[in-house]
Amino acid sequence: MEEYDDLVPTPGVDGILELTYRGWNLVDDVVWTMGRELLVLNISFNSITEFPPELGDLMLLKELNCACNKVTGFPKQIGKLKHLKIIKANGNKITRIPDEIGMCKELVTINIGENLLQTVPATLCQCAKLEELAVCNNRLSFFPPAISQSPKLKKVDLTNNPYLQHMIPVKLQGNSDFILWMCAKWWSHDEESALVRACNKDYEAMIDRARRGGKGIIEECEKVHGDRRLLPTSFQGA
Known about the structure:
The chain is of the alpha/beta class. Helices cover 25% and strands 9% of the residues. It is built from 2 helices and 7 strands, in the order βββββββαα. It has helices at 176-230, 233-236; strands spanning 16-18, 40-42, 63-65, 86-88, 109-111, 132-134, 155-157.
């Protein structure tokens, strides 16, 4: 999109760049060269379908607003945005969020409602400053219980995710307190199950060693018995 470079303004003194309602399918390449001055990027209400790896070059970015586009996902380089606090990506066609988003340690608010997500990364639990997570109106069939362990998370909106009702009842998918409580229960159950599986594995290993040891003893006994049969009759009674 180099032909549009002369139409792209530079960020203001506050680091904000507004690029809404431009009809773009892709973000102009010149934007990715603004890593040392861009703090807030608003490209909402376009027709953008994807982000290139260069998204990770916006090293000072604090807020990304790409709402109401046609974005299908983010590159793994989003994990390089160490100062990112706010993501507004509602109203897109996102099918997957990369695990690397857990590397964005400053994230406070994520709005990824009205997309096509079936799940979100469990690595979000690594975002220790995360307070609000909106994943309403998606296609969630699984919500990672580990996310409930994010220490500051207090608002979770999973409204209108009917395929998630086996974990969170539809009527309670907008109740943050219930969601966090239920996920904490799921997480605790998963941890206990993992511990039981680990113990079972250890017990199975012990049983296997005992069986192999027992087999060895039996083989030794059979060998001794065989050796005795080879002795002269006068020695077998000794």
